[in-house]
Amino acid sequence: MAAASKTTGEGWSSRRAFVLAAIGSAVGLGNMWRFPAEAGANGGGAFVMFYLLCVLLIGLPVLLSEVVIGRHGQSNAPESVRRVAEESGKSTGWALLADIGVLGAFMVLSFYCVVGGWVLYYIGVFLGDIFTTGIVGGAFQGRDPAEVEALLPALFGNGALMLGLHVAFLAITFFFVARGVSGGIEWVATWLMPAFFILFVAITFYGAFTGGFDEAVSYLFTVDFSALTGPVMLAAVGQAFFSLSLGVAGMMTYGAYVGRDVNLAGTSGIIAAADSAVALLAGLCIFPIVFAAGLEANAGPGLMFQSLPRAFQDIPFGSVIGLLFFVMVFFAALTSSISLLEAPTAWFKDRFRMPRPIATGIVAGGAMVLGGFAAWFFGQPVPVVSGIALFDGQDVFSVLDTATSRILMPIGAIMTSLFVGWVASRRLIDSENGLSGGLHHTWLFLVRWACPLALVVILIVGIFPSIVGE
């Protein structure tokens, strides 16, 4: 049995619960939506190969660092960093790195639930299609393909519906986080993650018989080194970093609920491997269906919400497969949004000594308002940032996305690497990380040198995208 956090009195009931919850935190829309889009936009195999290398050399070391801080601190993320700093005889000002992460988690949650609302919308669309046309044949029978692809732009143009879906998805997230670690977060992880994997494997298996599976395998795993350009490598580094939900205090928070009997190195390896496997399966799930329909892989963000629904028109039982697919995506999105809400909730609850449901409600209420602006004014540029090059012409949704993914998350991860690699007591860190011998020295080198340097590059390119011609 895992021990409870010193501050919160809450903890995972077992190592399995922590692993499933952490995988749920990492596996989300970044895997299901962003990875296939990034792979498609960056040429497939070369991107995938470099992405896997970056997960191993950058993502995993930072992931282990965050969990180590959380378990030793046994509290919300900023307090955990503060405790590690105090015991190391260093300035508690380093807690700023977790403050940045908590702020980032709140901002990501605000717009993430807007995208979660899109998933709910497509679940409703495919349910309606089943009741209208039945389950035999392709989806959206009798409807023009252009009409199907226009569903997403039509949703974007309906501010009231966007707002309602955002609130609905956030309300579901609030319900489980308010119930606590064992009664809510762990319950979701132990039930929805296995269901997610069952649906995922089943749909991927189905895709193997659609006629585009061989093309998808070739596309994802045939490496053309001439395609490994600077922008492709930077995209792969960014995807590896963001898909593991690093830099938003989530893994620190979850780590605080882990007992001393859990080997953090081995568990972090399982989490990173599962996250990468899901990303690859997402490609093997989506691309065969898209290729079989004769559609292009490089549709970008529209791949999942426009190209894929259009592809379901051309496959047997397309409406059922489409419904199951978006239910599966909903499971992944929910487990990630729960971790995003938990990080600021844990901070609020501990900082102001208030009951969990009230703390959860305050954070969720703030995210509802901020995300509500992103939903209602979707596609409308924000005048107040029009003079800032990085945000010029962006709407609220894009401003939140840009500010977190290009600035806050990389800064938080850089500071985490520097803190664990150079500031925190070696004795303290070594007692927690579960590594020894050559693996320990390799991890320390990566945390001290490779991770900060790579993340600094991500930060600089994120702020000044013209460097790579974006």
From TrEMBL:
Transmembrane segments: 17-35, 47-70, 91-112, 118-140, 152-176, 188-209, 270-295, 315-338, 358-378, 407-424, 445-468
Statement: the UniProt record of this protein carries the keyword Transmembrane helix: yes
Locations listed in the record: Membrane
Key words of the record: Membrane, Transmembrane, Transmembrane helix, Transport
Coiled coil: none
Pfam families: SNF
Alphabetized InterPro entries for the sequence: Na/ntran_symport, SNS_sf, YocR/YhdH-like
Top-level taxon: Bacteria
Main location: membrane
Membrane-topology descriptor: Multi-pass membrane protein
NCBIfam families for this protein: Na_transp
Protein name as catalogued: Sodium-dependent transporter
Species assigned in the record: Qipengyuania spongiae
Taxonomic lineage from the root: Bacteria, Pseudomonadati, Pseudomonadota, Alphaproteobacteria, Sphingomonadales
